[in-house]
Amino acid sequence: MRPCPNDPLTAMTATTAPQRTNLLGLSREQMEAFFLSIGEKKFRAAQVMKWIHHEGCDDFEAMTNLSKALRARLAEVAEIRGPGVVYEGTSSDGTRKWVLEVEDGSYVETVLIPADNGSRRTLCVSSQVGCSLDCSFCSTGKQGFQRNLTAAEIIGQVWVASRSAGPQKDTAQRAVTNVVMMGMGEPLMNYDNVVPAMKLMLDDSAYGLSKRRVTLSTSGVVPMLDKLGDEVDVSLAISLHAATDELRSELVPINRKYNIRALLDACHRYLAKCDSARVVTIEYTLIKDVNDQQQHATELAELLHELPCKINLIPFNPFPHSGYEKPSRNQVMRFQQWLYELGYNAPIRTTRGDDIDAACGQLVGRVKDRTKRHARYIQSIQLDAD
Ligand code: SAH
Ligand code: SF4
To answer: What positions does the domain Radical SAM core occupy (predicted)?
Structure first.
């Protein structure tokens, strides 16, 4: 049986040859619409989602609670296609990294960071290949924007990391307990794909993570932040990095469009809408002699005094030709102490997985090339991991 050209989901993807719908990235509503479109009942959506996301299954034949006829029909009109794993490595501190090949041969990196006490395993997920926002201290920004990831490619990162531990059992045994959208890309610039992927992270028939365990980090795309609050309830992290518009516009160019006041007002509106976000996490990357002086700590504390928030300090992660330097350990501690005296207990986010080149915010993808660069890249990261 061929896919029906009148099926909305088939028609959406149809080009010359009929394409199969990739079920991996469909949210519950989209999956229900898909089953209705092939003349099946809505409840099939939850059944198939559990196979895909709980069991890590990518073969309809294995879905034994579906009739043989339905399995055969699904194999004709649909598929479960995750990203290809081209490299998997574990760092000496337990951080795991996957390099994944997505649709057009681009690479994305996904990092799983265990908490020291073993209570959490946080997956750092990418939303784009590259990024268009060009923050001056970010290596992803420096590589430019290649493309948005699809919802299947975004949730595919969680799928790959989760299935590496076998079928999901109870929460305590899960490979992934928390997700942060802090890998490559600006999630709010890829809203239409990020939202269904986040819905899957929260859905009990998929990853069932509580809304406090799913965090979206943004440099401040204000209109999309307002939209997000209307559609999905997740924790929010704001990449602030400076307390004056003059300095922030230099570091985070989108500040020229949506300034600090506009961003903080949007944070207040978000908090009013979502019960996950009782507080906003403020990310502050400390860069030597740029934003790491006492005056900067004072300005930051004054700016934030009305916003329910916690501050995370991230020492700048150097990369070639960035033009910036990492502050000394002592300077980072001094900055933390100044904030403490001003009423903020600001943890320092340590860089993890250094030996496999896996620091969050330092993920560098590679665009497709037809030369031997791919092979050399894989070789180089394998050497890094040795
Ligand atoms: N685009 C989103 C999420 C990805 S970046 C955002 O900007 O929030 C994740 C975090 O890493 C952000 O807080 C970002 O500012 C930070 N970051 C980027 N480059 C960094 C670097 N070289 N050193 C330290 N932190 C960096
Ligand atoms: Fe993009 Fe975030 Fe990097 Fe800025 S910090 S360039 S928004 S990924």
So the answer is: 117-357
| Cα–Cα distance for residue pair 182/292, rounded to 1 Å | 22
- What is the CATH topology of the domain spanning 84-378? TIM Barrel (3.20.20)
Please write the tens of the pLDDT for every residue from 23-68: 999 999 999 999 999 999 999 999 999 999 999 999 999 999 999 9
Q: What pLDDT is recorded for position 164?
A: 85
Topology given in CATH for the domain delimited by 21-79: DNA polymerase; domain 1 (1.10.150)
Could you say which of 109, 153, 250, 283 is catalytic? 109
Domain boundaries of the chain, sorted by first residue: 21-79, 84-378
Angle at 347 between CA 272 and CA 172, to 5 degrees: 75
Residue 337 has pLDDT above 80, yes or no: yes
pLDDT in tens, 294-317: 999 999 999 999 999 999 999 999
Structure tokens at 51: 């196979």
Binding site feature residues for [4Fe-4S] cluster:
131, 135, 138
Is 199 strand, coil or helix? helix
**Integer angstrom CA distances of residue 229 from 19, 29, 125, 224, 235:** 34, 19, 20, 9, 10
Structure token digits, residue 340: 């403490």
C-alpha angle 213-57-74 in degrees, rounded to nearest 5: 120
